[in-house]
Structure prediction request, 271 residues.
Amino acid sequence: MNIKSNLHTHTPYCDGSSSIEDVILRAIELGYESIGFSGHSFTDFDPLPSMNNCEAEAYEREVKSLKQKYKDKIEVYLGIEQDIFSPEPPFKPDYIIGSAHYLDVGTEKVSVDNTAELACDAVKKYFFGDWLSFAEKYYESAKDAARITGCDIVGHFDLVTKFNEGNRYFDENHIRYRTAAIDALRYEIDYCNLFEINTGGIYRKKRTAPYPAEFLLYEINRLGGEIIFSSDSHDSASLGYMFSEAVEIAKKCGFVYAKVLKNGVFKDIKL
Ligand SMILES: [Zn+2]
Ligand SMILES: [Zn+2]
Prediction:
């Protein structure tokens, strides 16, 4: 397996558990060429998993200082996972992952990936129990992640399926679901054509396949989009989790190359 990089990595400055240095040391141990950190941008309505200005500045300082310390061993990048409902970060990131984690239902922002209970409550309260409407609403705003954040990478495109393993809450083959997801993809790809294949949901035992689902990967490929692998790591142990399996899925969906960040530029590597 030749993917020796991960750009979607959280730290204790947001909701990660391993220190930045521990993650870097683990990446070096794995023979990585590069490791990028992507702390959650600030969400004032849900501050806990995000970085406020003060935390973001401390995060920036620490990543930059460790980048210097390990510069002969590995490339370290300062990124951010920018939510569609966040203000701009207080530093200039090396790259941006654009993500949608919430639905704006007017009176509040509802998290789609916090807990299944929270999502179920929101579906009951705001969508008359109709999960397909919830998913449609998600894609209505998620499709704008690239336009709003100006991202380099689209994060976990179909995050709304996080708790839906085995079609537990809604049928992912349903025409309404597929139409909403495909329409959103076709819109978003004009703003950013690099999508991550994210194994984080598998590591957290919520999903058995990476985001995005295969039908979306086929469409990304058909539209000329590109992919990058990420483990959406919240601890050092998850770096590169299930990348070999994810690569096989990508190949099956028609991809021959994936991107990695090297010397500050996204380069193709053959799968
Ligand atoms: Zn995310
Ligand atoms: Zn993340």
Notes: DSSP finds nine helices and eleven strands in the chain. The chain has a mean pLDDT of 97. The CA atoms of residues 169 and 193 lie 30 Å apart.
